[in-house]
Design goal:
By secondary structure, the chain is mostly helical. Helix content is about 80%, strand content about 0%. The chain contains 19 helices and 4 strands. It has a two-stranded parallel sheet. It has a two-stranded antiparallel sheet with strand order 2-3. A hairpin with a 5-residue loop joins strand 2 and strand 3. The termini are far apart.
Length: about 450
């Protein structure tokens, strides 16, 4: 068996039904253990988020910027390509199962952030460091350090795939298709722009994300809502398609080949998890740097990332695709979403290209921070500059290379990151439940 076939076989196992059940099951278990406190406190989360920009609590960046950094890594091609693919393979019902995945995934994100702040520490330069490797080591004890090392190793390598070369390649391909610019020029531009941000560390990444993420997310939502508003009378019909497809399957229609309920569940859950990264263990690395005095406060803010990414942004994409009938055409992936926008907005395909580029650029920033913190855990702060330089150097390679194999390896490494993180969350869940019971009432009263 060749290397590619071997990686493909491993990928089929680690992203098989067992992994999806583990991710979804962890979210359901945490939701039940927390008595659905996440769903009941979404308004509180937004209040805390807006007030957090003025916080002087201990931490490296405002909690708002921490969430924007986490969103910079999650709001990406999954919101455009992933939703289209889920509907193509699972029918309109896949959108319903994406929502379900997000609603239980909010509990996973909450628990990740609570543990990240509770067990964070300072590195040799005085910066806050946290995430799964720290809550495994400091929360579960030294005998679990091997699991923390495994997570950090997978995280360091995975970033160069899904958060670096793959994103650079997506930008280069989109720009060449839309504007005719040679990938070599795009590669240079990407390396310069990303380098200018990440060499400034989390403070600069947080500041850029704090401006870029709201701008690009609101801009994309405005485009999507325009498509929806111009055909809002058909929204009840679309909701009917989604609910019927979720529980009865979807018959063949136009270029759509039809899908059973099992396909709707499978692809809805898989693409939902891919989009919001709940359980992967990446987002708590950013939340650990937030200025906050209470782990529960950051947990409530962190869960908004899953809500915004999947319930809001992915839904807008899905409604645009279903309202315009793009799902019944022969279009695939990003081209399907572009077709939907183009039917209503002149130049909608170019606007979508711009959105893809911004989403991919922000993902490169967020994942650079995730990767460097994993590297620092393994090798100390001396790894910071070499890691950042390697990150910048890999971008042109990604923009110019054929990445089918890198996609596969990155996908596998992402799954291998999730396993240590989910084990830690399940073992630490009694602590999270107790902290929530004892402190959530006080947090609500203080921020009423």
């Amino acid at each position: 068996m060749g290397f590619e076939q071997w990686v493909g076989a491993v990928n089929g196992v680690v992203w098989g039904p067992g992994m999806l059940l583990l991710l979804l099951g962890t979210g359901i278990y945490l939701s039940l253990g927390l008595r659905f406190v996440t769903l009941r406190n979404i308004p509180l989360g937004f209040r805390l988020l807006l007030r957090s920009r003025r916080s002087e609590d201990e931490g490296d960046i405002p909690a708002f910027n921490a969430l924007m950094t986490a969103l910079s890594a999650t709001v990406g091609t999954g919101n455009i390509v992933g939703v289209a693919t889920a509907i193509t393979l699972g029918g309109p019902g896949a959108l319903f199962w994406m929502w379900c995945t997000a609603l239980v995934g909010m509990a996973t994100k909450y628990a990740e952030a609570v543990c990240a702040v509770r067990f964070r520490e300072r590195d040799a330069r005085g910066n806050y460091a946290g995430g799964p490797m720290y809550y495994i080591q400091n929360g579960l004890g030294p005998r679990w350090r091997w699991l923390a090392v495994a997570f950090a190793g997978f995280g360091t390598l995975a970033g160069f795939g899904i958060g670096n070369t793959v994103q650079a390649n997506s930008i280069a391909d989109a720009v060449e298709t839309s504007l005719g610019l040679a990938p070599a020029w795009t590669a240079v531009i990407i390396a310069v722009l990303v380098g200018a941000v990440i060499l400034g560390g989390i403070t600069r990444i947080g500041k850029v994300a704090g401006v870029l993420v709201p701008f690009m997310a609101l801009g994309y939502l405005l485009m999507g809502l325009t498509v929806i508003a111009l055909d809002y009378q058909r929204l009840p019909m679309v909701f009917g398609l989604v609910l019927d497809g979720a529980f009865s399957g979807t018959a063949a229609s136009g270029g759509f080949a039809g899908a059973a309920v099992a396909a709707a569940i499978r692809f809805g859950v898989a693409r939902g998890i891919f989009s919001n990264e709940a359980g992967l263990g990446s987002a708590p690395i950013a939340h650990a740097a937030a200025r906050c005095k209470d782990p529960l406060q950051q947990g409530v803010i962190a869960m908004l990332g899953t809500f915004i990414d999947t319930v809001v942004i992915c839904s807008v994409t899905g409604f645009a695709i279903l309202l315009t009938g793009a799902w019944t055409t022969d279009q695939q992936g990003a081209a399907m979403t572009a077709w939907a926008f183009q039917q209503v907005i002149p130049g909608g395909d170019l606007l979508l290209t711009a959105a893809l580029c911004l989403f991919a650029f922000s993902t490169m920033l967020g994942w650079s921070y995730y990767g460097e913190r994993c590297a620092v855990y393994l090798f100390g702060v001396r790894a910071l500059l070499p890691f950042r330089l390697l990150w910048i150097a890999a971008l042109p390679i990604g923009a110019l290379a054929q990445l089918d194999m890198i996609w596969l390896v990155a996908d596998t490494l992402n799954a291998l990151m999730a396993i240590p993180n989910l084990i830690a969350l399940l073992l630490l869940s009694p602590l999270v439940f107790r902290m929530t019971r004892e402190g959530m009432g006080r947090l609500r009263m203080e921020n009423a």
